[in-house]
Amino acid sequence: MKILLVGASGVLGTAIAVELGARHDIIRAGRTGDVRIDIRDPASIRAAFEEIGTCDAVISAAGKVKFAPLVEMTAEDYAIGIADKLMGQVNLVLIGKDFVSEGGSFTLTTGVLAHDPIRKGTSASMVNGAVDSFVKAASIELPRGQRINAVSPGVLLESMGGYAPFFRGHEPVPAARAALAFSKSVGGALTGQVFSVL
């Protein structure tokens, strides 16, 4: 398969590229990589798809949110996650549906905070829950037999250096194990699912 991997240079994206790269043609996209893309900008997304042409699968391992105490959060702080991790991934689907082959797939990334919140994580919880719901709803309307799923990993082991204070008591997930869920989504037949990796 020809797979567009957005966020390929991050911890999770790197693990996904290793997992799927032995069997598929991976096009790495992000701030660096084979294709430059800014998921906050629909024009950038469209330009990236026009550059690569038709693909069989799109994986998003990208998305930014702000972590801060609820009492300090502003509408502008929430807008960061809405514009980036939520609408960035939604726009990958809205624009990408015209470039993904018949029977192709989208796999988005959410996270454990959708159902297991932490202090300072209201934006991440909100956005992850919204992406999960979008995936379920979009799965019944995508054209040409296209599928869509989300992968919802726990905090990544490789990221605990920066996130450990937020995730006390959470068992971290190795990125390589989380990457297996992306392989399941791309290579399987299910749609409208949220694959939790805890």
Short descriptors:
seven-stranded parallel beta sheet; 6 helices; 198 residues; globular; 39% helix; alpha/beta
Overview of the molecule:
39% of the residues lie in helices and 20% in strands. It has 198 residues and is an alpha/beta fold. The chain has a seven-stranded parallel sheet with strand order 3-2-1-4-5-6-7, sandwiched between helices. Helix 1 (11-21) links the parallel strand 1 and strand 2 (25-30). Helix 1 (11-21) packs across helix 6 and helix 2 packs parallel to helix 3 (75-96). The mean pLDDT is 97.
Which term fits the overall shape? globular
Largest sheet: 7 strands, parallel
C-alpha termini separation: 28 Å
Q: Count the DSSP helices.
A: 6
- Whole-number mean pLDDT: 97
**Secondary-structure element pattern, one letter each:** EHEEHEHEHEHHE
